[in-house]
Structure formats: structure tokens, C-alpha cells
Amino acid sequence: MTMTVSEAAEQVGLTTYTLRWYEQEGLVEPVGRDSAGRRRYTQQDLDWLILLTRLRRTGMPVRDMRQYAELAREGDSTLGARRRLFEAHRDRVLARIAELEEDLKVLNYKIEVYGKMEQELC
Q1: pLDDT tens by residue, 14-43
Q2: Would you give the end-to-end CA distance of the chain in angstroms?
Q3: N or C: which end of the chain has fewer CB within 10 A?
Q4: Model-wide pTM > 0.70
Q5: What whole-number distance in Å separates Cα of residue 15 and Cα of residue 33?
Q6: Cβ contacts of residue 82 below 8 Å, gap of 6+?
């Protein structure tokens, strides 16, 4: 079973423009086409796109995503390099989570202060 570009975009939460851009940037292997030349996405294509969207959502730069895609295409000889790339990204994600937790503490504090102030006014 294959999907059109709009169906695939809906499945992974991207726009059709972004899917085409991913292909142009080399993040996605050229997608198969039907007899009329329209892109047809397989489940394997969707799985790859879901991974890319998660990497992007966690803040991985496109250049690192491109490097990962190139390494993956080279095969098993690049497993260590791919693991190191993901480890470095995980470290950045964990650091960002720690920052967000600190920011959340400030927000919760301000919410608590304003709640108390509102109660005192009533």
C-alpha cells in the first residue's frame, strides 16, 4: 500500500511543501512514483519521515539530520558514527529539558504568587 504526498503529509504531521523540501535536501531518498509521475509513499518512507520529524522537533539541526541520512545510506559500517551523532543530540536534548524544568519552576512560582495575591484581594 502506498500513499500520495498529501496523505503522507497528514500521517506524519508535515505539509506537502515540507515533504518535498526534505526530499530536495537529501533527507529522504527519492520517493517512488506512480505511472503518472506522482509521488507514492510507502510505510518505510513514513517511518523514516516520523523519525526525521522527531529529530527536528527535538531541535536537531538540519545539517545533522542530513549527516545522519547520509550515514544511514552508507550501511552498517557507520553504526558507531550514527550512535555518536544520536548521543550528542541526546545530550543537547537533556540539557534543554533541564533548562525547561528550571523555567517551569519560575512559572509555577509566579502562578502561586499571583494566586495568593488574588486571594488576599478578595
Answers
A1: 999 999 899 999 999 888 898 898 889 999
A2: 63
A3: C
A4: yes
A5: 19
A6: 68, 71, 72
